[in-house]
Write a structure and sequence with these properties.
The complex is a heterodimer. Chain A is α+β, with helices and mostly antiparallel strands. Chain A folds into 2 domains: 3-161, Uridine Diphospho-n-acetylenolpyruvylglucosamine Reductase, domain 3 (2-Layer Sandwich); 165-253. Chain A has helices spanning 3-11, 63-70, 87-93, 100-103, 138-142, 175-181, 203-216, 264-277; strands spanning 17-19, 37-39, 45-49, 54-58, 75-76, 110-116, 122-126, 151-158, 160-161, 165-171, 187-190, 195-201, 219-221, 230-233, 243-245, 250-253. In chain A, the strands form 4 sheets. A 7-stranded antiparallel sheet of chain A has the order 13-10-12-11-15-16-14. In chain A, strand 15 and strand 16 form a beta hairpin. Chain B folds into 4 domains: 6-81, Uridine Diphospho-n-acetylenolpyruvylglucosamine Reductase, domain 2; 87-204, 2-Layer Sandwich (Uridine Diphospho-n-acetylenolpyruvylglucosamine Reductase, domain 3); 208-317, Alpha-Beta Plaits (2-Layer Sandwich); 323-410, 2-Layer Sandwich (Alpha-Beta Plaits), CATH 3.30.70. In chain B, strand 8 and strand 9 form a beta hairpin. The radius of gyration of chain B is 22 Å and the shape is globular. The chains are: A alpha+beta, B alpha+beta. At the A-B interface, strand 7, helix 5, strand 9, helix 7 and helix 8 of A face strand 9, helix 6, helix 7, helix 9 and helix 15 of B. Bound molecules: flavin-adenine dinucleotide (FAD). Flavin-adenine dinucleotide binds next to strand 3, helix 4 and strand 10 of chain B. Flavin-adenine dinucleotide is lined by residues 22-23, 58-66, 69-70, 81, 101, 123-125, 129-130, 132-134, 136-137, 139-141, 189-190, 194-195, 316, 405-406, 442 of chain B.
Chain lengths: 294, 468
């Protein structure tokens, strides 16, 4: 029996069930209802094909393991998070990388997913190639769904050339000035006084842009600033202690944020999607992708 | 109920004939009333009128689709977006623009020219196709290799659902809140509702662009060079292949400088900051020469670059001089398999005594074999369809997929069961039913069912026993 079949049998055909990942973002969208059975997705990198820029992994693979396999080939995925979180967990939570402006949204990273549906049977979403519009785009729907529509067992991810060089800078400069001075910085953060910038690409280009930013008053720093733990959606100001991602509207703040107001018509549509995929509500009961601020 | 004035709805036979076809070879569609709404409210009215009369509705942009996506089955209400063609707002700071669905792709490009920003998807049909159609088909184009297809450039979309409610899916910035219903809607081929406003993401123009033309004596060498470039860690902005027949067709008109005796040429475009571009030009030149390129020419200036691209973009127009009709295919294969599958494509065409030309997005393995024929020749259509099916099967056998950018529509639903299991298709249908429980939004498209579409020809026959 292959790993996916074992996973399918563990999920079974009835009873509330959720997948235990690395536990690093366990509470996002709510905790599983008490009594929910925990299963574990297959782990391990199955196949990395650098010339196709794809990698096939068990959804239970820790991000650190995936990074280790990719690093020697000079490639990476756009999945972001601590080494201990799992590939499936990152996809289920659905937060894009801080470097999104350069590397793209997380929702574009998943090419194919072998899943177990609420009926306990396996199905495949997406396809094996880097470009594909065959049928409905279930992969993008699965990213950020918190495992409420189907449980991912094995996934095929897009890889990309890792940048040759990366550099973080900060300065007491308005973020708008960075936009005017740089070409596609991978990240720009603003805490109300200080702007932090990540530049990446070929070393010659990064060095050139660093010198431009230095003239604007930036200095080099060792890495990204430490971000406060809670996410919110920017509503026009950056409160004390918070850090705004310029370009995505995600606010990182010290305190939990109010939940977003969801248009009732959108909520009804989302509810129909949930019922259509999981009529008895057995997948991740207690979790709700809309019970998350950003 | 009165929804639109008499000048914006017609059930005259000329209009119904005109709107019964799209850019595909599919004939025999039957349109009902043809409506030209101008506002979201009017689209809601059209949908409600369809419901009230027990009819389906079909959204339609410019009708350039190549799979029969907007071909009507059984007299539906046609919702044509061509009068919803306003660019509503361009927010340069936040790099998003709100546009109506009927805005023509190239008009948006012209509108943004000089602003330092652009909308990345550039389908070869961009002179005519609409942003709404791009969204519905998740369209691609030469410059989608590094930057991603339409879905990566749609931040939010306002949709009229099939029950007449209006929803905005996605966010102007950042990830979708909750489920990525935006991502699910894009590529829905008009079966999930009508897009009435779209927030497109704008991409910063690259400070430096280098365009290279490589020519080869063997098609296989060109194909192998494509994957060698990617394997070396270079992700070009565009990487296109044209074979000898295409070169012969366009060069006399465009004078792009394509060598007429080449078996294939590659256009490689590299962009970004100057240092990296120079480095990659060196790398691609070396890989090309090692891979058998006879010459590697770097466009010296914008005029030369424009000529190189003009040849690529005129390919479809130029072939009209060779045969009156064409059938353009669209499959994707792993790029490392390009050489072998291209060989098969040539052999398939030869077996069916058809002319084939290849001009395609080689960088992501997106094949576009173009079968040329004259539909007046008796029996030719059968040969064209048989060859097409063999190309599809060869692509799937190589580990590929049915479509890279044109979608499924009516054309390929009979092949869906070759790629997907009944469980896979049931999951896709779960999404569709959630958006359109009554099955009135562009019915019969995408998923294979037993029912057939109007009087549509042989293309649409789904074999017995397939998934329903
Ligand atoms: C010569 C030629 C070259 C082409 N090159 C490319 C290419 O390089 N890349 C590529 O991807 N495609 C290409 N195409 C295919 C086609 O142009 C694209 O699919 C295009 O996006 C369709 O846009 P349209 O406005 O013509 O849509 P239509 O053909 O009118 O409709 C296409 C589909 O979209 C749906 N639709 C249209 N508008 C809406 C809306 N507002 N809301 C919901 N659904 C809607 C329709 O129901 C239908 O299913 C080419 C076609 C031709 C003829």
């Amino acid at each position: 029996m292959n790993a996916l079949d074992t996973f399918r049998d563990a999920v079974g055909e009835s009873g509330a069930v959720c997948v235990r990942g690395g536990g690093t973002r366990w509470a996002v969208g709510g905790l599983p209802r008490p009594g929910t059975r925990e299963v574990v997705a297959p782990s391990g990198v199955k196949r990395h094909d650098p010339a196709e820029m794809i990698v096939s992994v068990g959804a239970g693979t820790p991000l650190g393991d995936l990074r280790e396999v990719l690093r020697p080939t000079g490639q990476e995925t756009t999945l972001d998070g601590p080494d201990g979180c799992t590939v499936g967990g990152v996809l289920a939570v659905g937060h894009s990388s801080l470097r999104r402006a350069r590397v793209g949204a997380l929702t574009d990273a998943l090419l194919e997913a072998n899943c177990v549906g609420a009926n306990g049977r396996t199905f495949t979403a997406g396809g094996p190639t880097v470009k594909n519009v065959t049928g409905y785009d279930l992969c993008r729907l699965l990213v950020g769904s918190l495992g409420t529509l189907a449980l991912m067992g094995e996934v095929l991810l897009r890889t990309r050339p890792a940048p040759e060089h990366a550099m973080w800078l900060e300065g007491e400069v308005e973020p708008d000035e960075v936009a005017a001075a740089c070409y596609r910085p991978s990240c720009v953060l603003w805490d109300g006084t200080t702007t932090s910038v990540c530049l990446e690409g070929y070393q010659v280009d990064v060095v050139e842009e660093v010198s431009i930013l230095r003239r604007l008053g930036f200095r080099e720093v060792g890495g990204s600033p430490v971000l406060p733990p809670f996410r919110a959606r920017w509503a026009g100001n950056v409160p004390e202690g918070a850090v705004l991602e310029i370009g995505t509207g995600v606010l990182h703040q010290p305190l939990p944020a109010d939940l977003p107001l969801v248009d009732p018509a959108v909520a009804r549509l989302a509810g129909r999607v949930k019922v259509s995929f999981d009529p008895t509500g057995r997948l991740n009961p207690g979790r709700d992708p809309y019970r998350e601020a950003a | 109920m009165e929804v639109l004035g008499p000048d914006r709805v017609t059930d005259g036979s000329a209009a119904r004939r005109l709107y019964s076809r799209d850019g595909s070879v599919i004939e025999g569609g039957r349109a009902g009333p043809v409506c030209f709404p101008e506002t979201t409210g009017e689209v809601v009215g059209c949908v409600q009128a369809a419901r009230a009369h027990g009819r389906a509705f079909v959204p339609r942009g410019a009708g350039t689709g190549l799979t029969g996506g907007s071909v009507p089955c059984d007299d539906p209400v046609m919702i044509v977006t061509t009068r919803m063609n306003q660019i509503l707002e361009v927010d340069r700071g936040r790099r998003v623009a709100w546009v109506e669905p009927g805005v023509v792709n190239l008009d948006l490009a012209h509108h943004l020219a000089g602003s330092g920003l652009h909308f990345a998807p550039d389908p070869s049909s961009q002179q005519a196709c609409t942003i709404g159609g791009n969204v519905a088909n998740n369209s691609g184009g030469p410059h989608c290799l590094a930057y991603g297809v339409t879905s990566a450039h749609v931040a939010a979309v306002e949709v009229v659902l099939s029950d007449g409610t209006v929803v905005v899916l996605g966010e102007e910035q950042g990830d979708s809140v909750g489920l990525d219903l935006r991502g699910a809607f894009v590529g829905g081929e008009g079966t999930l509702g009508v897009a009435t406003k779209i927030a497109v993401r704008l991409t910063q123009d690259p400070p430096k662009v280098a365009t290279l033309l490589l020519d080869f004596v063997e098609v296989a060498d060109a194909a192998t060079t494509v994957s060698a470039i990617i394997a070396a860690g270079v992700l070009p902005a565009a990487l296109e292949l044209m074979d000898r027949r295409v070169v012969e067709a366009v060069e006399p008109f465009v004078h792009a400088g394509y060598p007429l005796d080449a078996a294939a040429v590659l256009i490689v475009e590299l962009d970004g900051l100057p240092g990296g571009v120079a480095h990659e030009v060196g790398l691609v030149t070396r890989i090309g020469s090692q891979g058998g390129a006879r010459t590697v020419r770097l466009a010296a200036d914008d005029a030369e670059r424009d000529r190189i691209w003009k040849g690529r973009k005129s390919a479809f127009g130029a072939i009209a001089n060779i045969r009156p009709d064409y059938y353009l295919h669209d499959t994707v294969i792993p790029r490392t398999k390009l050489a072998g599958v291209l060989d098969e494509v040539y052999a398939i065409a030869e077996r069916h005594d058809l002319l084939v030309m290849n001009v395609f997005h080689a960088g992501d393995g997106n094949l576009h074999p173009l079968l040329l024929f004259d539909s007046r020749e008796p029996g030719v259509m059968e040969r064209v369809l048989a060859a097409g099916e063999e190309i599809v099967r060869a692509s799937l056998a190589a580990g590929g997929v049915l479509s890279g950018e044109h979608g499924i529509g009516l054309e390929k639903r009979r092949f869906m069961s070759l790629q997907f299991s009944p469980e896979d298709l049931a999951a896709q249908d779960a999404l569709r039913r959630a958006f359109d429980p009554d099955g009135i939004a562009n019915p019969l498209k995408v998923l294979p069912t037993g029912a057939s579409c109007g009087d549509v020809n042989a293309l649409d026959v789904v074999p017995d026993g397939v998934w329903v």
